[in-house]
Specification:
By secondary structure, the chain is an alpha+beta fold. It folds into 2 domains: 2-56, no CATH class; 85-200, Nuclear Transport Factor 2, Chain: A (Roll). It has 7 helices and 6 strands. It has helices at residues 2-10, 12-17, 23-59, 71-74, 85-89, 93-112, 118-127; strands at residues 138-152, 155-168, 171-174, 178-186, 192-194, 199-200. Strand 2 (155-168) and strand 3 (171-174) form a beta hairpin. The chain is rod-shaped. The termini are far apart.
Amino acid sequence: MDQEFEELEQIPWAALAATPGDSRARNASIAIAIAAIVGLVGWLVVRGGNESTVTIATNAPPATVAPVVDPDETTTAPDATVYSEADLMLIDVEDEERLAIAQAEWLVRDYLTVDEDTVVASRLDAILPGIERGSTPAYVEWARAFAVSYPEPGTYRVEVIYRLLTGDEAGFIRQPAAALVVDVAVDVDGTTQLLAVPEPVPVPFLRGLDG
């Protein structure tokens, strides 16, 4: 009996395998042992994972969050009435020229129109105070700028060609095309100013078809 017990201690798995009557119990014991080992290993892994997670969470330095900056709070809008040299360099010359042309064409229409419209007369008196106007009714059929020069920065000399209709209640007559030059200054804020009384200039000549 003792000899068999010692043999089991020396070679336990061989002894279990050599006992056919105990195969069912042996298999159950092996399954329980394996399950216990797997459970222990899983518990250790989970416990180790939880401990490592807790350690990272408690030992890590607090996260630094960059403050959100509102661009409107850090950007100061410049005074609209103050213009630096850089601002002056950004002025669109083409826009200034279009504005000068529009004002010149508009002025020629009002300057040459003679009728009972008080609105046109009041505007012309404000722009050219004391200007003498003719007594014969007249209307500008059309007016177009055909040349622009730049005596100095911000100053435009616009030449406008036009056709005038003159007459009375009996009828109007188309006059030959004529031209006036209008000197206009344009400020950086879009303000325009007439610099001189419009003066006559030669009309551009158009040649006919050869032959």
